[in-house]
Design brief:
Blueprint lengths: L10 H6 L4 H11 L3 H24 L6 H20 L9 H35 L6 H8 L4 E8 L7 E7 L4 E7 L8 E9 L2 E10 L5 E6 L9 E8 L11 E4 L3
Antiparallel strand pairs: 1-2, 1-8, 2-3, 3-6, 4-5, 4-7, 5-6, 7-8
């Protein structure tokens, strides 16, 4: 970067959309005649556009409160120091602007996760009624405040399949739902294997409709079963052991 114009200090805030109208106009005017700064802006845009996806892929966990608190505190201190020294706070320090970038990325990541989760939940609920004659049991399990959900994710990058395993602390009945499953060929079915206390067993074969939505209701040997893992595998009907690669799977955190 060869440009020495002070406006370059505003580029990060410009990409994040945190400048006031006058500063934004100043930056845009400068960009029209400065290729160096324009290239830098393009790099910032590329980075910030990829952050939400990277965060969603890396972790399904929410942003730890202490991290958010620390970033906000840092920005407050920076602003306070600037005012104390009577220095106009026009140039956002890099720590502040990239702190904003991180917060923005996490916020977008949360939004993406929430939207995807809600859409998947609605899709599953809208289809399950056509798959089972145990609607009352299903609703009792999935809609209770005592229910725990485990999210089964696709095991390959080119798959859009997903699923959820619902257990209720005071019920022995367990509900498994899945969406976007390839329709199984004849003589094959999606076998759900669950692991409890180190032992893996077949919970049942999931019923799947023509839209790729599946549901399985099975009974555990006790209320509130706690599983360590779950795998949905497309296998020949009648299989008594796990064969092949799971379509979707879940593993409890250590």
């Amino acid at each position: 970067m060869t440009c020495q114009d002070p406006v370059q200090e505003l580029l990060e805030a410009y990409v994040l959309g945190t400048l006031d109208a006058a500063e934004q106009a100043r930056v845009e005017q400068h960009l029209q005649s400065c290729d160096d700064c324009q290239r830098l802006v393009n790099e910032y845009v590329e980075v910030t556009s990829k952050l939400p996806h990277a965060l969603v892929s890396a972790s399904a966990l929410p942003l730890p409160p202490e991290i958010k608190s620390h970033l906000l505190q840092t920005m407050t201190v920076e602003r306070s120091s600037a005012r104390t020294l009577a220095i106009p706070f026009r140039r956002r320090p890099r720590l502040v602007t990239w702190g904003l970038a991180i917060l923005l990325a996490f916020s977008l990541a949360w939004g993406l996760q929430l939207n995807v989760a809600l859409a998947q939940e609605r899709a599953l609920r809208s289809e399950f009624a056509n798959l089972v004659d145990q609607q009352e049991i299903v609703l009792e399990v999935i809609d209770s405040s005592k229910t725990t959900k485990a999210f089964l994710r696709a095991t390959t990058s080119d798959s859009k399949s997903y699923g959820k395993l619902f257990t209720r602390s005071d019920f022995p009945d367990v509900v498994a739902m899945a969406g976007r499953l390839p329709v199984p060929p004849a003589a094959q079915g999606y076998h759900l294997w669950v692991t409890k206390e180190g032992q893996t067993y077949l919970a049942g074969i999931m019923k799947v409709n023509e839209k790729g939505f599946g549901l399985l209701v099975f009974s555990a040997d006790e209320p509130g079963p706690v599983y360590e893992a779950a795998q949905l595998i497309l296998q020949p009907i009648g299989s008594t052991s796990r064969i092949g690669t799971p379509t979707i799977s879940w593993q409890a955190s250590p």
